[in-house]
Design a protein that fits this description.
With 403 residues, this protein is mainly alpha-helical. The chain contains 17 helices and 3 strands. 66% of the residues lie in helices and 2% in strands.
Length: 403
């Protein structure tokens, strides 16, 4: 018998032996004791129940957010800062892929067994346990901060409203500053903003230097934000950034016009420093920008603040807003229009085929509305009574600080 034939026979024997041994297997290689399995399944439920039971108890939320959440998120931020990619996106993509595989695998396994309901129930329980672990950890790393004293309360900001006179004065201030700094940032021959994302990201961890001295409670290490691979999806849903507590990362949508990106970066960095509420993170981010000494960040902060203040002023005093609007420079007007045009473009899909345009546009609108509804409900359930409108609630803080 020659060598090739001998090798082929040996391979066939090995395959048959392997298949025979595999067929004899009747259960998993490692089988956990029932008690251990019950503890593993029950632990996230206990953690979640404890969160909902104690989140409103005086002192618990503050202790957990400062003694547990802050150091853990800081350690996670330090670890994930090693990698240039967004670990959040990698984990989310992996989770979706695993979920699809697990569901398909469940269907395949159940179709070959008699006790199908038992198999499906057990595997669905596994999915629920994994989801509950993620939620319980998120609750104690992030949601708990919504029930602790916020930035405004800790730093003596009054909760009262502002007068139209004060609102008008601060809006005019932001318009004047936006006009001033709009001429200092880099622009092309047509007047379009041409600062680079790299420069914005490189300077990000230095923009809080002044604010750290004014508000020592914010002090601490900042980690450079991560550009998102799925920025196109974020744009379709209408969001510019997200802080992910489970990895300690600030993730930035890179698709929108760059002139507002510095303010977005500063907003997400505020979350890193334990500013949980969206209105307070907006205020802190804008304040950090305009006091940073960095022209690119200063312009972005004045412009972002102007947008929020303008929305409030136009509703409170249309004539006062008209006067402010007429005072805006050509550069500010161009940037404002470019921002509007970009977000309008994300509401429609163009493929060249009318039928697909309508279908995909409808899907985009549905997806955006669904995300808004879910996120609004999430914020309201976490002690943020204004939901999505809390982003614009930074106006009171801006007026009180700058008046």
């Amino acid at each position: 018998m020659n060598a090739p034939l001998s090798a082929l026979c040996a391979a066939r024997v090995w395959v048959y032996t392997y298949m025979y041994e595999r067929k004899k297997r009747t259960g998993p290689v490692i089988k956990l004791p029932r008690t251990v399995y019950i503890i593993i399944c029950a632990l996230p439920a206990v953690l979640t129940a404890a969160f909902y039971a104690f989140r409103r108890v005086n002192g618990v939320a503050e202790w957990a957010s400062t003694r547990v959440s802050a150091p853990v998120r800081g350690a996670l931020g330090w670890f994930t800062a090693i990698y240039p990619l967004s670990l959040m996106e990698v984990l989310c993509a992996a989770a979706v892929a695993w979920l699809i595989f697990y569901i398909v695998r469940t269907v395949m396994v159940a179709s070959r067994k008699r006790d199908r309901l038992k198999i499906v129930a057990r595997r669905l329980l596994n999915i629920a346990v994994v989801a509950l672990y993620i939620w319980s950890i998120h609750c104690w790393l992030w949601n708990i901060g919504y029930f602790a004293p916020g930035f405004a309360e800790k730093n003596g900001f009054s909760p009262g409203g502002v007068s139209t006179v004060e609102l008008t004065a601060v809006t005019r201030l932001f318009a004047e500053k936006a006009n001033e700094y709009s001429a200092l940032v880099k622009r092309d021959d047509e007047g379009r903003y041409i600062e680079t994302r790299k420069d914005i990201f490189d300077a990000s961890t230095e923009v809080y230097a002044f604010l750290f001295t004014e508000f020592p409670g914010l002090s601490g290490r900042l980690f450079e934000p991560k550009p998102m691979m799925f920025s196109w999806l974020m744009s379709r849903t209408g969001y510019t950034g997200v802080y992910f507590a489970l990895t300690g990362e600030s993730n930035i949508n890179t698709k929108p016009p760059l002139f507002l990106m510095p303010a977005t970066v500063a907003h997400e960095l505020a979350h890193q420093r334990g500013v949980f509420a969206e209105d307070e993170a907006n205020f802190v981010g804008i304040a950090a920008c305009v006091t940073s000494g960095n022209t690119v960040y200063e312009y972005s902060g004045w412009l972002m603040g102007l947008m929020y203040l303008s929305n409030a002023l136009s509703a409170a005093d249309a004539e006062a807003w008209r006067e402010v609007n007429e005072s805006l420079s050509d550069e500010v007007r161009r940037d404002w229009q470019d921002n509007h045009d970009f977000w309008q473009s994300q509401k429609t899909v163009t493929t060249g085929v009318e039928f697909f345009n309508k279908v995909l546009t409808a899907v985009t609108e549905t997806l955006s509305d669904a995300v808004d509804t879910v996120y609004d409900g999430y914020l309201r359930s976490q002690n943020q009574e204004l939901g999505l409108r809390s982003y614009g609630a930074c106006v009171d803080l801006l007026v009180e600080y700058f008046k």
